[in-house]
Q: What sequence folds into this?
């Protein structure tokens, strides 16, 4: 097959990030000297994917077109005979792109994982959280034989907030703020009795999430911004992580430079935003949305672990890979 083929038509390869078959297909076309246009579906909104599925009836990747001729995936491309492949190459060499061929999506359909780093509006109770963090309410308290470090008593919080001149809350308003801090997952209840989703302005102990001694990968400063929708957040994290991963995987897809990933500036963005998962609200999600959420973050967790901790050496280490805070 001639190298650096000049073509009138177009070869489109639809791909997703982190796909070995996609990489193999691109490598094969490169060896053949056939120019191609890559459409990475992770860079576009879901409608682009749906349009492709409606056309081909397939969701697996890659999907390869020579002008309007749908070849299939990598296995289909790899099993073509020399003559069959030559027919396809001749099609794009001699014929312009027909109206029936798929079009390259416009830039307006793109979704940018980098939007994860954009400034987000602060939660309306962020100042209360900051003031509570530095207050004298946070102490070690005893309940029975157990000590609860870095905790506070609910009734003391209500009194403190209602007397704080910076705010204009009466006792009822201060209690309502406590309920909101619990609902928005800035704090969590420590003692077991009663409903953990209800804020009780009595001797019940609570703790700021920032004061938890988590060992999970996404442990870190709790975001004071208005939280994103859980599925949106997990999907955006997955897309950005895959983009980083694609830069450090070998051309044959067999090795990954995890040290390079750990040093990548965009990986810092991923780690920062992953802390938002601590406040992700899953209780309002449907079963399908919950499944989508965990599927989206699974690969992120595995890549995150390998980049920060190295490959797990045994069963115990592997069991810790999926340790992540979602209250």
A:
């Amino acid at each position: 097959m001639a190298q650096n083929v000049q073509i009138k038509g177009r070869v489109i390869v639809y791909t997703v990030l982190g796909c070995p078959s996609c990489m193999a297909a691109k490598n094969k076309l490169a060896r053949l000297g056939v120019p191609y246009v890559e459409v990475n579906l992770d860079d576009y909104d879901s409608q682009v994917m749906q349009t492709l599925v409606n056309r081909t009836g397939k969701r697996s990747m890659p999907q390869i077109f020579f002008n309007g001729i749908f070849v299939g995936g990598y296995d289909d491309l790899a099993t073509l005979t020399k003559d069959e492949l030559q027919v396809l190459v001749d099609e794009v060499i001699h014929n312009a792109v027909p109206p029936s061929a798929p079009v390259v999506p416009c830039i307006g359909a793109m979704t940018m994982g980098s939007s994860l780093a954009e400034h987000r509006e602060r939660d309306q109770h962020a100042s209360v959280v900051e003031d509570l963090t530095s207050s004298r309410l946070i102490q070690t308290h005893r309940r029975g034989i157990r000590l609860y470090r870095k905790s506070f008593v609910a009734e003391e919080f209500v009194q403190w907030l209602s007397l704080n001149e910076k705010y204009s809350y009466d006792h009822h308003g201060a209690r309502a703020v406590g309920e909101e801090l619990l609902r928005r997952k800035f704090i969590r209840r420590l003692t077991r009795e009663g409903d953990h989703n209800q804020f009780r302005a009595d001797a019940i102990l609570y703790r700021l999430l920032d004061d938890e001694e988590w060992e999970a990968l996404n442990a870190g400063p709790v975001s004071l911004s208005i939280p994103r929708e859980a599925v949106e957040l997990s999907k955006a994290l997955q897309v950005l992580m895959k983009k980083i991963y694609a830069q450090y995987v070998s051309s044959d897809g067999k090795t990954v430079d995890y040290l390079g990933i750990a040093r990548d500036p965009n990986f810092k963005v991923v780690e920062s935003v992953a802390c938002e998962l601590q406040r992700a609200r899953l209780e309002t999600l449907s079963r399908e949305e919950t499944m989508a959420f965990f599927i989206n973050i699974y690969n992120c967790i595995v890549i995150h672990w390998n980049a920060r901790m190295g490959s797990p050496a045994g069963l115990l280490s592997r069991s810790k890979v999926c340790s992540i805070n979602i209250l």
Notes: The first strand starts at residue 11 and ends at 15. The CA atoms of residues 228 and 299 lie 20 Å apart. The chain has a mean pLDDT of 85.
